[in-house]
């Protein structure tokens, strides 16, 4: 026993001789990228030169067709790689090398791909380091989370390899194993509950001052992780309890015990995030990334742009998800920046940037819209059903004793309408009644008698008897007037003002933020179909990007009364999604925050949906969007904004964002308007004509860093697809 112990000590003290040099000229290697947007990715290449503590590597993926412009990179190596040191830096828990041999191929058993296992995913000519983020061991497609970028990707298991670390000094490979952070998190989930999602825990932890001790996400020192997770857990728990917010696990447990009819608005699950189509490890939501995901553009495709003055000046670059990589400065530019780089104007830059096959980027967007029109023409949008009266109140969205409209399928509680008794005879809901006489016995326009027909205001959609209008104005309405008719001069001014705002990018200060109001382009506004296609193409792509962000941020919940019924075809006023505009907040062409808004005349505008991408939360982006939107609505003469707030977000809306709860008596002012409201939400309003301006906050270049430590957003939604939302912020904005 003693002899064996002494032998072990001798072996321990024996000095290991320096190892041989590795990664010599001709070696096949992988190099880790340090570029923003490419963090955590390994690109393959070959060593073409070797020096002391340095290797020159030629990247396989960046060789031009004519053999020029090959991308070469000088990469520093450790002393162990150069054979100058017997130590193994790769044995340290926080070590992360920049270059390695190409890992050996290992056969993968799908059952090995456990939740939290460190893996590499092959995507766009690179291997991206991540972790398995689902528990579907028998599935052919798995969800992988990429901690470097904070995003996730659904991918086929054939694109996955188990991560193995290269021990540089000994030239051996060992499995990285499970992510230590998730191992610690799982222990908390077993013993307690998580007040926020696993993703949010990771985002918060990375902002802690002590994270520099961990240095890299694959650090294997679980003691360090336990300390950091404990601090992050306590902070989020304190916030959750102080805001009267039940943890989701408890909400889910209570929901099982209650009636299945109860909730239509739920907190987002803490253990999963909805997969998004075309998702990419930190996939920037830009026009280029969307076209790449639709297989219209190829990543790294060559593009060029000539200045407006013509001549030999030619800007050349390559397509990336974030923008266009300019060859002359080796930097990423927005579409506007790339065009103006060589003297071009930024009017419709997509039309001026061309691929090698001669197509412009605008042509690519028109191509997508052409495909959409063909699908629309072949699809039968009729479901063949006749839907009777609604089974819930159009105002509060709850069932019970309802009175039914004799003109439309809508139903109402007597109390929600401010009535005390059930009306005798035929009864028509406020939306079906004339805005002049208040009567509701209306008939559809049969084209023969204008005395019994109705007409809708082109802006506020309020109904009017043509007979009442004739008596008031003393003239008949012509066919042209009937198509684009406004009930008041104010509605016409609002509509004209919205048309002037549509599609225009408005710069917000020095943070490269832009505000844009969008709506699908009406083909009736263009006599030339080709002109309409060009006008609608960019609009269509951006609206689809906004929809992707909505699906990324929100967890859809089926309407408990309609189930899978396609609400986009509903005759119910409470499920009427017509007339909405989409508001975009972008930074360098990348979509950050999106909201929906509908304007009901001069009295009120509703904002039922707001979404901020995960990577940009805690930066005050929603606050910037709401401040700018308020200013634009104020310029149009709108009196107030209305939105549905979940109880956990009420303090924020009524605090820093200066909204007020609407009283029951005030709600009666809006019975003529049908808002996109949701169960268990609290209707809030903000009078904007007399509110202080938010312009100074928007234009400040120091806004983002000042807000970063104070603002916390989390989204809640309902409904199937186009759902309701409020964003929750903790702390002062």
TrEMBL record:
GO cellular component, one term: nucleus
Domain of life: Eukaryota
Biased composition (Basic residues): 9-20
Species: Punica granatum
PHD-type domain boundaries: 390-435
InterPro entries (UniProt xref): Acyl_CoA_acyltransferase, Agenet-like_dom, Agenet_dom_plant, GNAT_dom, IDM1_C, NSD_PHD-1st, PHF12, TDBD
Family matches, as Pfam families: Agenet, IDM1_C, PHD-1st_NSD, TDBD
PANTHER family: GB|AAC80581.1 (PTHR46309:SF12), PHD FINGER PROTEIN 12 (PTHR46309)
Keywords: Metal-binding, Nucleus, Zinc, Zinc-finger
Gene Ontology MF, one: transcription corepressor activity
Protein name: PHD-type domain-containing protein
GO BP annotations listed: regulation of transcription by RNA polymerase II
Limits of the N-acetyltransferase domain: 533-705
Compartments reported by the entry: Nucleus
Keyword flag Ion transport: no
Main location: nucleus
């Amino acid at each position: 026993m003693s002899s064996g112990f002494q032998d072990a000590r001798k072996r321990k003290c024996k000095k290991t001789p320096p190892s041989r040099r590795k990664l010599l000229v001709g070696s096949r290697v992988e190099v880790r990228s340090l570029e923003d947007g490419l963090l955590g990715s390994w690109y393959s290449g070959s060593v073409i030169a070797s020096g002391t503590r340095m290797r020159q590597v030629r990247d396989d993926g960046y060789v031009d067709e004519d053999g020029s412009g090959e991308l070469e990179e000088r990469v520093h190596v450790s002393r162990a790689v150069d054979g100058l040191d017997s130590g193994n830096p790769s044995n340290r828990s926080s070590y992360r090398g920049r270059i390695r041999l190409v890992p050996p191929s290992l056969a993968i058993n799908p059952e090995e791909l456990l939740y939290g296992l460190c893996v590499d995913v092959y995507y766009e000519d690179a291997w991206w380091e991540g972790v398995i983020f689902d528990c579907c061991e028998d599935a052919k497609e798995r969800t992988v989370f990429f901690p470097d970028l904070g995003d996730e990707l659904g991918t086929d298991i054939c694109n996955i390899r188990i991560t193995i670390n290269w021990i540089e000094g000994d030239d051996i490979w060992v499995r990285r194993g499970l992510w230590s952070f998730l191992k610690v998190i799982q222990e908390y989930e077993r013993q307690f509950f998580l007040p926020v999602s696993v993703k949010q825990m990771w985002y918060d932890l990375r902002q802690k001052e002590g994270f520099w001790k961990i240095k890299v996400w694959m650090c294997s020192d679980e003691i360090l992780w336990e300390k950091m997770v404990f601090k992050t857990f306590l902070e989020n728990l304190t916030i959750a309890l102080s805001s009267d917010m039940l943890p989701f696990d408890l909400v889910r447990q209570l929901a099982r015990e209650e009636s299945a009819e109860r909730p239509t608005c739920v907190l987002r699950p803490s253990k999963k995030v909805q997969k998004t189509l075309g998702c990419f490890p930190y996939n920037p939501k830009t026009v280029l990334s969307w076209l790449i995901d639709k297989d219209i553009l190829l990543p790294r495709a060559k593009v060029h742009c000539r200045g407006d003055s013509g001549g030999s000046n030619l800007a050349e670059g390559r397509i990336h998800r974030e923008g266009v990589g300019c060859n002359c400065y080796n930097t990423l530019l927005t579409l506007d920046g790339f065009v103006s780089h060589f003297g071009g104007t930024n009017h419709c830059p997509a039309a001026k940037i061309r691929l090698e096959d001669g197509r412009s980027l605008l042509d690519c967007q028109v191509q997508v819209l052409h495909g959409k029109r063909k699908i629309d023409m072949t699809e039968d949008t009729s479901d063949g059903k006749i839907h009777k009266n609604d089974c819930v109140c159009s105002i509060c969205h709850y069932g019970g004793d309802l009175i039914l409209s004799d003109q439309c399928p809508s139903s109402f509680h007597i109390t929600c309408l401010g009535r005390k008794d059930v009306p005798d005879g035929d009864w028509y809901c406020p939306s079906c009644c004339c805005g002049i006489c208040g009567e509701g016995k209306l008939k559809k326009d049969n084209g023969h008698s204008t005395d019994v027909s109705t007409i809708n205001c082109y802006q506020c959609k309020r109904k009017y008897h043509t007979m009442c209008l004739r008596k008031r104005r003393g003239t008949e309405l012509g066919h042209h007037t009937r198509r684009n008719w406004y009930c008041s001069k104010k509605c016409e001014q609002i509509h004209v003002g919205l048309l002037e705002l549509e599609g225009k990018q408005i710069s917000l200060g020095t943070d490269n933020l832009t505000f844009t109001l969008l709506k699908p382009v009406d083909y009736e506004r263009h006599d030339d179909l080709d002109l309409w296609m060009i006008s609608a193409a960019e609009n269509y792509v951006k609206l689809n990007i906004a929809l992707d962000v909505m699906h990324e941020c929100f967890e859809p919940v089926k309407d408990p009364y309609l189930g899978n019924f396609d609400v986009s075809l509903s005759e119910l006023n409470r499920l009427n999604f017509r007339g909405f505009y989409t508001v975009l907040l972008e930074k360098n062409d990348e979509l950050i925050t999106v909201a929906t808004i509908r304007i009901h005349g001069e009295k009120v505008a509703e904002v039922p949906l707001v979404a901020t991408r995960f990577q940009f939360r805690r930066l005050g982006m929603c606050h910037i969007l709401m401040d700018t939107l308020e200013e634009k609505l104020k310029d149009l003469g709108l009196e107030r904004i209305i939105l549905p707030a979940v109880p956990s977000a009420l303090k924020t809306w009524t605090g820093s964002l200066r909204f007020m709860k609407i009283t029951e008596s005030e709600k009666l002012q809006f019975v003529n308007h049908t808002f996109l409201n949701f169960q268990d939400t609290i209707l809030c309003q903000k009078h904007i004509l007399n509110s202080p301006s938010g312009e100074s906050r928007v234009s400040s270049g120091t806004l983002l860093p000042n807000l970063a430590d104070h603002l916390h957003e989390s989204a809640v939604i309902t409904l199937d697809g186009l759902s309701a939302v409020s964003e929750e912020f903790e702390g002062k904005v």
